[in-house]
Amino acid sequence: MLLDIIENLALLMTLCWLHETLIRNVKGHILLSKICTGALFGLVCIVGMMTPLVLAQGIIIDGRTVILSLSALFGGPLVGLIAGCIAGLYRFWVGGVGAIPGLLNILMSVLMGMAFHYLHQKRSIPLNALSLLIFGCIVQGLQILNIRLLSEKIFAIFVENALWPLVFVQLLSTLLLGLILRNIHQQKNDREALHESEAYLRAITEAMPDTAIVIDQGGNYTVIKSSDKQQFPTSATRPTSKHLQDSFPQIQVELLMQFIHMTLASNEPQTIEYSMQTQIGKRIFEGRARRLDILSGDLPAVIFMARDITERVALEQEIRISAIAFECQQGMLITDAQTRIIKVNGAFSKLSGYSEAEVMGQPTRILASGKQGPQFYKNMWQTLKETGGWAGEIWNRHKDGEISPEWLTISAVHDEHGQVNNYVASFIDISERKNNEQKIQHLAFFDPLTGLPNRRLLYDRLQQALVACSRKHTYAALIFLDLDDFKNINDLHGHKVGDELLCHVSTRLANNVRELDTVARLGGDEFVILLEELKTGKKEAAIQIEHVVSKLLKALHEPYLFNHHRLTTSASMGVVLFNDEQYTPDELMQHADLSMYGAKASGKNSMCFYDPQMQAAVSMSLKLEQDIGRGLTEGEFKLFLQPQVNIQGELEGVEALTRWQHPQLGILGPDIFIEIAERSDLIELIDMEGLHNGCLILAEWAKNPRTANLSLSVNISTRTLYKTDFTQSVTQSLTTTQANPLYLKLEITESILLKDKKKAAIHMQALRELGISFSIDDFGIGYSSMSYLQQLPLDQLKIDQSFVRDLPESTSSLAIVCAILAMAQSLGLEVIAEGVENLAQHDSLIGCGCRHFQGYLFGKPVIAECFEALILDSPPELLNGPR
Ligand code: C2E
Ligand code: CA
Ligand code: CA
After folding, report:
1. Residue ranges matching CATH 1.10.1760 in the chain
2. Atom 23 (ligand 1) nearest CA
3. Which of 85, 77, 87 is nearest to 34 (CA)?
4. CATH fold of 2-192
5. If you compute the radius of gyration of the chain from its CA atoms, what whole number of angstroms results?
6. pLDDT recorded at residue 237
7. Chain centroid to CA 520: how far?
8. Residue ranges in the chain whose pLDDT is less than 70
9. pLDDT computed for residue 436 by the predictor
10. Is 165 touching ligand 1 by the criterion CB < 6 Å?
11. Domain named EAL: which ranges (predicted)?
12. 208-308: which CATH topology?
């Protein structure tokens, strides 16, 4: 009996050993492992059944319940079923009276094992000695019930001989085999978990670019994994017996050792940055270390991960440098591809006045000054597109509205496909530079004392004037001016006063020429004046110059007031007139200089022309001017009246035309004196004299029914109309003479209106309100436009005699006359034709619709005193009424 038990135990041990070997070798193939385990347990059952405890004939007691129940408990349903089937087949083949309970025992064992397996899987029961004992008891209890199925006799024999040994052996076997199997499975599970975590760890370390090393307390290291052949030339993962000293210089070794000790003392991972000489040069590494919770060899150790961060450090350095460079003295801004601002620096805010938040996301055009047109920006973008860059001067607007010049550089930033991602712009304020440039320019071209152009600029302008004159066929003049006896002022009052005087002189000179003329200072008391765009005729130009010069002489001769002094000085001027490039600037300067000495010689405070003929003409004009003045005071200017008639030939009015009754030269027409008078204030005197005499005539006529309804037209020149007190003077004449303004007509020429239409309109409006009417003289030869005819208070248009002269032959004149008449009719204006000398002209004008006429055909201008006798009493033929 004891021998049988030992034999069974040996069998169980064999089973355990085989099972352990099996699952160790068939790992990874779960199904195969289960089939093999099931087969093994089934076969061991068969062996057990082949060497049973035979209690009586046909009653075989063996360890099958133990083996099969535990196979299902540990191996699960598949293992239990395979083992159960094998054992069941064998038991069936053996047969005998105990076959049925034997097979039931097999079934019961497998089912019980499976039930416990299920409960254990559900974590309802643990697998320990007690649970195994309870499991064994249940299985054995059920086995005893099975045996009870046999005959009473056999069961009695069983109870008597085998019950307690069986219970004892079987329970012991269940406990022993269960614990061993539990251990085997525990080990298997542990092995699998370890394998799994190893796989994870291997994958993680291989995926990492870092080098992993285990370094012990003594500085010995083992490379676990390295992809860096420069740093760790020994093959990766193979343990080495190296020391830190083999790879690093002493100073680094000490540093790293300190770090390792620090890491060993800490529960947290530690980091360090260090550099190392490698085969490709010096590299920078970042090391991260964590204490290993096991010993490496006999010593505590750390796991150390090293990462090459050379590129990253360089990049960070580059970013730091870029950031510092960005915050430079220049204004910087970065935009996206749509030129919306995405970043600016501090200098930008300082220069533009905008904070970063204010411009963020804004288009760059918020900075535009508007000083440069769309074409400028178009060209800029074109260049940027073609070359990827642009640099130049630009005017930008500060937040406070002020605009300033800036030097701007723009670069486009492209991506790898050549698309523009950003624009980077930098700029500096160049206002100061521009100011300096201007100052330098000023110093180079202007006299520092007076601020007038210097010799250099004068020559430049003179050269340009020469070219312009020969191109446009206009006249220009060079006036050389030297102050008379300036040396005395300097000697008597000192240079300070002398300088001050020069400044005053320059101001007076500049104030008495037009803006387009140039006043230059050559040095000392020498000045040069360049007059451009003078009158077209040589004589006219000379007379114009003469007027300017006399104005200048007069202005310079006015006393100068200093603190305690009242100084007077005068100047001598030499003039040269030119209208082509016959002479060079130097020659012209010489001529003017020479003439200036002529003026000095003729007694100072005077001018002298380089050309003697010119000098004569100017002298004569001057003399005439003086004579007009005298004639006016003497009352030598008389009014002549010329009749104006209607279509029936009835007298409607007269035009007053001034004549000069010269004591020596006889009666002089306006062609002799008007032009000269127009250059000075004399014309105003002539006009006002004519107007006043006209008013006297009107007042006189009012008394006589034959003349009471006649109008009187007076010619008024430009200068007179623009006179500030003109309206006042007219009102005064009307009041003193008691003339009716309704019969007074003022004739003005078209050119008058072009100069300052606004001022003319104001004067005309004021006079119109008094009842005075207006006629446009010489109409058709000027620049009449419909708009000014509409805007001015007009009553009459006077067709110029040049159009009448060629009638009726000239079709163009006829067309103009007809057009004027049609236009006047549409504007509600009266039209009068002047210079009508014959009937053909008269008929032709009537044909065009003209209803008012003036000309020799109806009467020549006659002196006012004789008008009544000559015109009213014995009128020309046509004045008697229509033919
Ligand atoms: P105007 O205002 O166009 O005057 C008409 C001129 O044509 C007058 O010349 C007159 O004698 C002349 N005339 C008149 N009928 C005929 C004709 O049938 N055939 C020809 N060939 N000529 C005719 P006048 O008197 O020599 O005056 C010349 C210009 O002098 C005037 O041209 C006027 O502009 C100006 N004028 C005359 N007196 C004054 C005045 O007191 N003040 C101003 N500012 N200018 C005046
Ligand atoms: Ca006239
Ligand atoms: Ca006229």
Report:
1. 2-192
2. 835
3. 77
4. Arp2/3 complex 21 kDa subunit ARPC3 (1.10.1760)
5. 65
6. 47
7. 43
8. 1-2, 4-5, 53-61, 227-241, 751-755, 782-787, 874-883
9. 87
10. no
11. 621-875
12. Beta-Lactamase (3.30.450)
Written as one letter, the residue type at 532 is E
Report pLDDT for 235. Answer: 42
pLDDT at 52: 73
Is the CATH number 3.30.1330.40 carried by domain 312-435? no
CATH number of 446-610: 3.30.70.270
Distance from the alpha carbon of residue 227 to the mean position of ligand 3, in angstroms: 110
What is the per-residue pLDDT for 10?
79
**Alpha-carbon span 582 to 750, nearest angstrom:** 37
CATH 3.20.20.450 applies to domain 623-873? yes
Ligand 1 near 657 CB (within 6 A):
yes
Angle CA(244)–CA(298)–CA(253) in degrees, nearest 5?
A: 15
pLDDT of residue 150: 77
**Mutational test site, ligand 1, from 638, 642, 657, 804, max ligand atoms within 8 Å of CB:** 657
How far, in Å, CA of 166 to CA of 433, rounded?
118
| pLDDT value at residue 227 | 66
Neighbours of ion ligand 3 (CB under 5 A): 777-778
- What number does the ligand 1 atom closest to the CA of 854 have? 15
pLDDT at 877: 60
Q: Which atom of ligand 1 is nearest to the CA of 689?
A: 41
Q: Where in the sequence of the chain do the CATH 3.20.20.450 domains occur?
A: 623-873
pLDDT at 883: 46
DSSP annotation of 446 reads: B
Find all residues with CB under 8 Å of 532, minimum gap 6, and list them.
465, 468, 469, 474, 476, 516, 517, 518
Residue 876 near ligand 1, beta carbon < 6 Å: no
Check residue 57 and give its pLDDT. Answer: 59
676 lines ligand 1 (CB under 6 A): no
Domain with CATH 3.30.70.270 in the chain: 446-610
> Using a 6 Å cutoff on CB, does residue 686 contact ligand 1?
yes
